[in-house]
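Appendix B.2, paired examples.
Example (i):
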Amino acid sequence: MEAQLFMTEWARYASTITKQLGLRGKPKGELGEPLDSQSVEMLKDDQVVQLYELMLAAKALHGDTITADDVRGSNK
């Protein structure tokens, strides 16, 4: 069951990223989509840590600063 859910979500993610990158592979604005709180609640503790670390790394690449909202998970 977990593997099937993973593969379904991975395919949806790949489709979303492909549309957002376009034919030339350059982003047309932001990539991905926001996670809703229900999806985050389904994650295991180690997955939440990995997601948080990914957010920190992505923001560091763009020179962005981490805000209190980022830590709390508030949506803008």
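Example (ii):
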Amino acid sequence: MRSVVKKLLSCGTKSYASSRTLALPEESRVRIYVCKDRETQCKLEVDTSLLNHPMLEDLLRLSQEEFGHSYEGALRIACDIDVFIKLINLFKSQKH
């Protein structure tokens, strides 16, 4: 939970720049921007294993329709941040 809180601190900030945000994600993790628009985007890192979850695959397909194939170093998902975090927590609880 602490890592989610740290990631949420960068939500909605345009000029958030530090060596931590520019670094590559840890091994077996992927960077995802969750947002309805660029002004409210939030950068998160999630386990790559979650990318195979059918609901997340559907979200990625829907986001592809909205944002296209082009991306800048991270996946982009069109979703409310609160909903996305609840989904990720649900996926993790189902995994155990």
